[in-house]
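User:
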Amino acid sequence: MFHIVQYWPLRLITQNSLSSMCLKLMLSRPVAFAQIWKSRFSSHSLVGNKNIILMGPPGAGKTTIGRIVGQKLDCPVIDIDDDVLETTWNMSVSEKLQDVGNEQFLEEEGKALLKFSASGSVISLTGSNPMHAAGMQHMKKNGIVVYLDVPTTVIMSRLKSMKVDRIVGQSPGISLKDILQFRKQFYKRWYDIRVLCGGDVAAEVVAEKVLDAVKRYQNSELETFISTRCSRSGRSMEKDSCKYFSDVVTEGLAPDGGLFVPERGLPKFTAGEWQSLIEATYIERAQVILERCIHPADIPASKLAEIIGTAYGENFTCSKIAPVRHLAGNQFLLELFHGPTASFKDFALQMVPHIFAYCIPRSCNYLVLVATSGDTGSAVLDGFSRLHDSDKQRIAVMNFFPEDGVSPIQKSQMIGCQKENAWSVGVKSDFDFCQTAIKQIFTNSDYTGFLTVEYGTALAAANSINWARLLPQIVYHASAYLDLVHQDTIPFGSPVDVCIPTGNFGNILAALYAKMMGIPIRKCVCASNENNVLTDFIKTGVYDLRGRKLIPTFSPAVDILKSSNLERYLHLIANEDGQLVTQLYNQLENQGHFQLQKDLLEKLQQDLVAGWCSEEDCLAAIHSVYTTTGYILDTHTAVAKVVADRLQDRTCPIIISSTAHYSKFAPAILRALRIAEIKQNPLSQLHLLSSYSPLPPVHWGLLETLKKKGNDDHHVCAADMSMLMSRIETLIQNHFM
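Assistant: Predicted structure:
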């Protein structure tokens, strides 16, 4: 048995309404009394009959925080240590541990949990309760488990001040730090909600965060999405058809042609919350950030952890996933090419297929359409080909790329990444045609309806127009800043600039989102190649495609004139004025240009600066950096390096996004390094580069892909909408029927 007197608010215990009979009941039959108490204060309860279960390491403050939460909710507070274990055992926890030893103690502790029941209470677990699976399963049946996530260094400091040098499960030769790290796997297994707790956060503040987190957990309807082209009046009319995260992942593009964005914006992290992630691994940072961006009703924390672990566990060659490397002076490289297809697209596209498979209904087949200017194609094909076999039977992907608008190695890679549910189609046009064609297909209700009725197949998008593509990119921009803090390059709070080679505006938009969420980014530098429509726009406010023709360059991933994700940013700075966004993009579609009003341009220029790089300067930068450092930049990173050199004011560090591995652009690299002008096949080019022992080494994934047979086998279509739709229908018949 247990008692619940100790932590009830004294003002409640001494109220006249509590008779002596109730006091006796409280001591003799505490569970029954908890029910009486609950019925008296049900109107104040946040969770009804559910319990709020606080979990975390010893020293996390579970007891104190539980007491405060209980007072705020006017509900019973139960401390498992004092109110259950010691009452059940009739001895202190330390005496029991000494009596039976570590292993038996955990079993006895678990048995006590299995006999325990309560409702409408705040329960503070022991630090070792989560190590007993059956006991925790019993607790979760009627409770919301809140993980008080406190950095290990803070816990160590607290335990030292409490003169605690040994905890349950700690054997001779195992340090306190090691056992705390070991326990994390159990905490992560059981929680529903995570609350970040920094070192200097008052218990009262943490208690409020717990309450806010529980409210969010129970109110998924607060996290809805709207179209960038939705008017304010239209929002109130569409309340009955709210879109949630699962919906926008599945649908990709809004029905009105706009892009989905969260109606209430992105979550904000406090400085203390960011600082609590300084010691964390990349995977841990990703888990924390994405939990706040994806409601658990869409993807529970345990499933999200599984997805993140699958995406980044073994598929990346560097244990740091997205390492930050010092280049020279105050310039740092964020290396985003350690994934299986050697570009930054892997960060999203190793995750998105698993998110998509979890979110879509099982009753329908899905064909995912994607347009690529180079790197997205191989990344999306690789990502979807890694799904479980059962998911591959109901999910396929088709990749459209400009047949003559990507590098030879990129093309070979996209063809080599084809699998039984993943195909590439070359289009005799440029990327803008491919992207526009997909948008038109999605908004063609007659065609999409025909596919659904005739073949039971729905269409979905995997380009960065899909909201799920952007979220993982926010993580690496935040992580890069935290790495600089961890390396003692800067103290937390000091600003940095970021410079990003930019075409479709997705990567730089993710950096802007990271800034909104609390990362101290001062300026985002947009780096263009000779297709510099974005640079002109950021400088003048005029987006003008009249008379512009796409110029093939050494950096094909940013050979783009229509930047899709710019629409999301304009919606943001226009205070979510969907009518204005609709007006601008209708004008762009019909007249080939639009102009921002002065106040919006001023807002934009507070966040963004821009510059562009010629082909000659790109190659010269690759040669110069290699000569001085031995490091080889890819062509896109070289574009960003040139622009960073011109625009940075050197008052703070600048993080240059290295978005692809140089191996993907071997002919240009060989030319830049003045090694040889060759016309060999892509595999021979990589072997030649490898013979120079470059830094970093030639990418393993590319070598493996290019060694595969049949690297010329793919479909090619003319730039004709009817032919593209016919190709889609044929592949649906071949795969799903």
